[in-house]
Amino acid sequence: GVDLADTRQRVFHSKRLIERSASWWRRSLSDWQLFKAMLHPFFGAALGVREAASYFTLPTRRTRDYRLRMAAVGVGSALYDYAGVGTVVDLAPGLGGGDRIIAPGDIRVIRNPGARPHVFGLGGQETALIWERPGEAAAHSRGAAGRVVFSEVYYPGWQASVDGKAAAVELFEDTFPSVPVGLGEHSVRFVYSPWSFRIGAGISLAAILAWIWLRFRHRIASTTASAGFLL
After folding, report:
1. Which phi and psi angles does 52 have, rounded to 5°?
2. Residue 163: how many CA atoms within 13 Å on its side-chain side?
């Protein structure tokens, strides 16, 4: 089975393995054991494994294009490093098509020692992740002037700050949000805060305040009516 060297890194299942897996799906116990052993995406998701590509969500154009680029160049490319892929699961070389059932010996697990962390520096920047949570990450960088990259696919709404000041987000490899940093030490923060979320939060807050006001008015009216009846 796949033994992850670092659970903070991502697992990448090759395109041909995913496509071929449909042909051996018999819903037998051996199928489930094989899928579990190679950490097929739906098993990985259940176990909290970081995936380089999800096959169960609608991908963005940037996600699709980057994944196709990875498939075209193969393991060893810096594209795998930038995506934080530490483990690649693929079929053994020379394994053709057909309906033959895949055996455990047909699965090849490749380690990628060059996998970058979730936030990394370029151009002489030493970067350390301070903390992260969904849609947000903070890091500390130091060294020569360079760039700090967050290996999450960019989508409108990603914002960044350097030393507490808003910074323009630049795309690295046309995929990942990044910010330039100058010489020295800096605190860098990435946060996903789209306008749609802010508008939705505002509407929700307004609805809550309206509900509280109506309840308050109803209580005042009830109190006044009761007082009038007693008088």
Report:
1. -80, -25
2. 9
